[in-house]
Amino acid sequence: MDYKAYIAQRLPVEGASREEIAESIAVPPDTTLGDYALPCFKFAKIMRKSPALIAQELAASYPADGVISEATALNGYLNFKVNRRGLAEETLARIKREGGKYGSSALGAGKTVCIDYSSVNIAKPFHIGHLSTTVLGGALYRIYGFLGYRVVGINHLGDYGTQFGKLISAYKHWGKEEEVAQGGIHAINDLYVRFNNEATEEMEEEAREYFRLIECGDKEAVALFERFKQLTLDYVQKIYEKLHVTFDSYAGESFYIDKMGPVIDELKEKGLLTESRGAQVVDLEPYGMTPFIVLRSDGASLYGTRDLAAAFYRKKVYDFDKCLYVVAYQQNLHFKQLFKVIELMGEPWAKDLVHVAYGMVSLEDGAMSTRQGKVVWLEDVLSRCVEKALSIITEKNPDLENKEEVAEKVGVGAVMFGALYNSKIKDIVFSYDKALNFDGETSVYVQYTCARAASVLAKAEGGEYGAVEPCPQEFELLKALADFPDTVKAAAEKYEPSLIARYAVDTAQKFNKFYFDCKILQAESEDGKNFRLALTRATLTVLRNALTLLGIGIPEKM
User: Among residues 36, 57, 82, which one ends one of the domains?
Assistant: First the structure.
């Protein structure tokens, strides 16, 4: 529960909005005075009263209920105490009742969200740089679905451009059928790298011609392109399965080639196209941006043109309420231009287009270049993390059953969590040691906490319990559990799965403090034991829900 919002709704402060009041409420350093406090000093000038008098009057008028048990004034502060028993009864009953759906809602009922993410390039393996868009988009897909939205996951494939002509040229010169059949996507990528390192001007011209043949529907060129595309999709699907990522559409750039015409015609009709050095552009200088190029001087389209066509297609087909583009921050200008062009075309839904920008992911040894072949493949990162996880698990718990299965969940989860834990806009340097730390701010720590809670519950089921006054450790954990639904909503509103990742770590920390400070199975009374077992079960449910939204597996034992 958002206690600050709840309190603010019941406080009639002259000249202040509910939002301003909620933002002013804080957790006092001395919680013996209250669980929340509102400093009244900022309202003194508006209400023309002393802060102390304002606090006293508000305390006298505040309606105590099953949520807030007491409101008191002290030295200009209005202090609130949460009804601990009421919180415990309401929260535990709701989690027990809703189970795996706790935190979900019908907020998005009747609304559609399109999410464009991952967007792999055909004929190129998945590298570590694709991690963020894939796991961020996957998490947002699950979060919005959890909140009742109809979600359309779109993998906008990079399947159009002269690079495919280069690939065919390289294959014709150096490719061997048996090597491609055996090496798959990596063999194709080696050919692409070799072309960029060794191609002559004649080969460059040949590549342009092969791409023209693809556009013209030449049987052999299209067959080779389609083969490279299928090899790529077969390859990436295995990685998507590991990352628990799914898509509803694989419509890539080539899909929109025959859909650009009507959009370009509309730009012309509305007088938005101007000529610049032979190219057709939309002038965005009045809005502080460089021109948006629609057609090059040779009449060829660009990926921006295809993005424009894609936006109109998605609105027509899915009638989205929001369309998210999960793309690195290096494309900030491109999306500002794209959205502005659609706005200038008079489309009211331009305001519903959102660029969910994120920072880059790299390993501790630096950057990558696909053309030069200096790339860290994501499959290698995942495999190494799983191997390292297996080694740690074997050392910590040599008799654990299904160690390989557990290591898969732990290792893959660690890589995903590493990209999800920090604010999406931050650049991330991935460290295997940090990601697999059982005691750090990691998915491993949360998974281990789940295993610990499951182990406690395996020893005793627990029954009904009477009225129990939660102790401080229990109360802090209960507050965290009650906050989960609001955390999920905030993650959707801010496009920040990191809020759920950080929530999971924070809640796991609170549970472990409760676990070490409070005797669960050896509680002083039967009521106390059953209450603590119910609290343990509720924590396990909520942590599982949080990790599931992030796409991370939960081992039963570790």
Answer: 82
